């Protein structure tokens, strides 16, 4: 799993939506705090995959200098505990 998260690119669009390689959804950004709500996972409506149960929003924080974002992944049996946070940097 080392380097696994480095392959993910999130595009946060001005309209409050995001796209990523395996997911898409909406986000809100207040001060330096980010809340990401996944609405589709692998192209499918996430409520179909969760049998109608709501999906908690992922949380994150933007660094004070605006050069990195840390996303806190939800606890899941599919995600190893060692991959609970992902540090992201702008695509250059």
Q: What does the model show?
A:
By secondary structure, the chain is mainly beta. The chain has one domain. Helices cover 4% and strands 40% of the residues. The protein contains one helix and eight strands; from the N terminus they run E-E-E-E-E-H-E-E-E. Strands 1, 2, 3, 4, 5, 6, 7 and 8 form an eight-stranded antiparallel β-sheet that branches. Strand 2 and strand 3 form a beta hairpin. The radius of gyration is 13 Å and the shape is globular. The mean pLDDT is 83.
Summed up:
With 92 residues, the protein is mainly beta. Helix content is 4%, strand content 40%.
**Strand content range:** 35-45%
H/E order of the elements? EEEEEHEEE
Number of helices: 1
CA-atom Rg in angstroms: 13 Å
Q: What is the quaternary state of this protein? A: single chain
Ranges with pLDDT <50 over ≥5 residues?
Answer: none
> Helical residue percent?
under 10%
- Strands, count: 8
When the domains are counted, the total is: 1
Average pLDDT level: 83
For the biggest sheet, the summary is: 8 strands, antiparallel
Which descriptor suits the 3D outline? Answer: globular
Structural class: mainly beta
Q: Please give the alpha-carbon distance between the first and last residues.
A: 24 Å
């Amino acid at each position: 799993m080392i380097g696994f998260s480095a392959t993910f690119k999130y595009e946060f669009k001005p309209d409050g939506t995001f796209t990523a390689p395996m997911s898409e959804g909406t986000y809100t950004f207040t001060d330096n705090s980010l809340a990401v709500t996944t609405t589709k996972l692998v192209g499918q409506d996430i409520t179909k995959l969760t049998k109608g149960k709501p999906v908690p929003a992922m949380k994150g924080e933007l660094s004070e200098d605006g050069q990195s974002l840390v996303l806190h992944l939800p606890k899941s049996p599919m995600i190893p505990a060692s991959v609970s946070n992902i540090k992201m940097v702008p695509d250059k």
